[in-house]
Amino acid sequence: MSEAVRPEDQPVLDVDPASEAFRHNAMPIFQRLLREQPVARLPDGRYLICSHQDVSTALSDHDNYRRPTEWSNARKPEGPFREFGLNNMIGMNPPDHTRFRKAIMRAFAPQRVAALEALIADVTDELIDGMQETGRGDFIEDFALPLPITVICAMLDIPVEDRGLFSSGTAAMLAGLEISTNREELERASAAAGELYTYLHDIARKRERSLGDDLISLLIQHEKADNLSRDEVVWAAITLLIAGHETTTHLIGNGLLALIRNPEEMARLAADPAGLAEGATEEFLRYDPTLYVLFRQAVQDVEMSGVLVPKDSLLILSIAAANRDPAVFEDPDRLDVTRANARQHLTFAAGRHLCAGHAVARLEGRIAFQKLLERLQGFELTAEPVPRNGLMFKGYLSIPISFGSH
Questions:
Q1: CA atoms of 280 and 370, how far apart (whole Å)
Q2: HEC per residue, 123-176
Q3: What are φ and ψ of residue 358, in 5° steps?
Q4: Of 187 and 90, which is predicted with more confidence?
Q5: How far apart are CA 236 and CA 90, in angstroms?
Q6: Pick from 133, 166, 308, 404: most CB atoms within 10 A?
Q7: What CA–CA distance (Å, rounded) separates 149 from 267?
Q8: Domains observed in the chain
Q9: pTM of the model
Q10: Given this model, what pLDDT does residue 7 score?
Q11: CA-wise closest residue to 373 among 283, 250, 289, 281
Q12: Which residues contact 225 (CB under 8 A, 6 or more apart)?
């Protein structure tokens, strides 16, 4: 530690991660930082962390790094959205995180995930059937959004007809989680959180009188054993609803866009979709991750890439940069659907905070890309995709495409 570069001796990186320029064109900056300054001090005292090793360590070393729960919740106004922040496993530290994760992981037991394969395949085929009727459309609206939201609605046993409420509500809540959020976005996030809470609390109340095999029933069934209150059960269901479709929507959308922009890789995948779809899904997660950054706080003074990071410093962990680290991935800026070590990406985080639903997202991605490439061809953009605003979550609101059938 004594030889580490101290904060006062380190140059300050004059960028604002919340700026639009950084959010939509950060990769050149990440490339330079990986070469020259993998731990970069920002003007406000935060640190931007880019190397795969440092990001992986911060995600896995729970003694020296923690989630900045107080900082995160202090930014939220009083009301339902702050209650979500206080009862959201994704933002918790132990012991609450341990308690919540035990409850939620029952929902993702291997046998439960395996049982979803037929449902995912059927929904995928049905959506492609609809796409084939037109030969063009918005890939997000027509496929990437309805597939995962239909699956998570089935897992929760809630009406897919209400998906408009779910998709708009969760989108508003995700926007509220961004570091670039404004007052209006926070107000919309709070209103959406309240609406989803009321909706799911009513379902939980009805469900307790006739428990089924769905995830809400599972949470209610074990609420005493897991020391969960009914409010915590409802917020856990909302967490599952958000995580269960937003990240997968962007995995599928980002993946198809990457293929369109890399036609040689599209051709490789199309030549053997059954054999390559699983690995290609991992490469899409690496190449253009749905989760762009995560936040951590140093529990004590720590050394990262030869730099002394002071206790209590807020760390912006760049998943996108870590996934392009040349120390781990050969020719990292090239899309390669056959990349052998693509699964070393950090898009699902790591350690005890590894995404609870990663197996479902991977299953949906594999089936989606296999069937898309088996049944459709000639994907082309008909207009420029519309990116979502924000730094934490990377994806598109619209991807206009045309295509043909095999």
A1: 10
A2: HHHHHHHHHHCCCEEEHHHHHHCHHHHHHHHHHHCCCHHHHHHHHHHHHHHHHH
A3: -60, -35
A4: 187
A5: 10
A6: 166
A7: 29
A8: 7-394 (1.10.630.10)
A9: 0.93
A10: 67
A11: 281
A12: none
